[in-house]
Prior knowledge:
The complex is a heterodimer. By secondary structure, chain A is α+β, with helices and mostly antiparallel strands. Helices cover 44% and strands 27% of the residues of chain A. Chain A folds into two domains: 3-134, Yope Regulator, Chain: A; 141-281, Rossmann fold. Chain A has ten helices and eleven strands. In chain A, helix 2 (59-66) runs parallel beside helix 4. The radius of gyration of chain A is 25 Å and the shape is elongated. By secondary structure, chain B is of the alpha+beta class. Chain B has one domain (6-155). At the A-B interface, strand 3, helix 2, helix 4, helix 5 and strand 7 of A face strand 2, strand 3 and strand 4 of B.
Amino acid sequence: xxxxxxxxxxxxxxxxxxxxxxxxxxxxxxxxxxxxxxxxxxxxxxxxxxxxxxxxxxxxxxxxxxxxxxxxxxxxxxxxxxxxxxxxxxxxxxxxxxxxxxxxxxxxxxxxxxxxxxxxxxxxxxxxxxxxxxxxxxxxxxxxxxxxxxxxxxxxxxxxxxxxxxxxxxxxxxxxxxxxxxxxxxxxxxxxxxxxxxxxxxxxxxxxxxxxxxxxxxxxxxxxxxxxxxxxxxxxxxxxxxxxxxxxxxxxxxxxxxxxxxxxxxxxxxxxxxxxxxxxxx
Amino acid sequence: xxxxxxxxxxxxxxxxxxxxxxxxxxxxxxxxxxxxxxxxxxxxxxxxxxxxxxxxxxxxxxxxxxxxxxxxxxxxxxxxxxxxxxxxxxxxxxxxxxxxxxxxxxxxxxxxxxxxxxxxxxxxxxxxxxxxxxxxxxxxxxxxxxxxxxxxxxxxxxxxxxxxxxx
Lengths: 282, 167
């Protein structure tokens, strides 16, 4: 294979998998690159007299939405924002598309930059999530906690993955239910904090910040922070930061449970069962 | 409501994932999150980047009370994407108004509609190679939702339709 063969091979691969068809008052371009599902990446080009508009058809926002990463706090969302800023692309929150207006003079070169961003988004973002998943040791604590809660066969519905308003931010907790406290009701929130990860300190920082913010508002709430640190199996860093969760519980007002401790685990489960028992709820 | 068994679409050396299929066979009920609720409580003051038309439903599994996430979005070219997930794992991925899909065993699924499902050998629907079975329906997104939910035994009668709009 010589230089000419390689050139022809690549050119034919690109040319064969590139398609342009009329659509939406412009042209839908099917690019010779695939997304994480193996489908061709597509974009829209709408030529005008003074400018050419290029759009991603909503696929970048769709990717975030499918993977549950649409919030601006998410690194995937931040990556799209940074790329958009760097390449002068408009991230249109109202219509949910990435868009760029190009001058016909520079269309040829600039469209390649736009394509580069689209391919980057479709390639990198699914991998960001995969890395996060594979970084976990064994099954997630939240999954194991979920299995135990399921076994309790609770008589009332316990909400999972609930968004909770704090004083300044909205947070996500693993479980939420309401328990009776005399004539009043109290929201019980349960947060599973994964510490058997590369950077356990981040988990603790998140848990304690969440606790401070969520417990700062006036609503009657109780927060239970569950972590899983085994004196033998967990890293020294995980054991060290677990002490932070334990030490600050009284000061901040949450209650910590170590899922690796049979005593803590049984206590947490017994408490949930008791609080949700039909007898105590009447 | 029903459950569609896709085992006929896969190579005999492969098999469906019991844990997934058993979950899909159970009765499930979809409930609308409510748009104002979604904005205020789920996303709060946080800015979100959502596709042109999209919505999200909670799906509660009767009996186990497990909560699944059902999302549907449509791109500007009319392709419809419906996902059913639990804890970031895809149980099904519905692609409507799409092109051909090539199954790992070499079988081609003709356009325009197919639903991806995980198997033991190809268990990650967020990868290029996974199995899909074809479905037949008209070209409306509502029928796509009804067909998808029918295949995975989700009752959507409690959900107010039409839902797809930009919020």
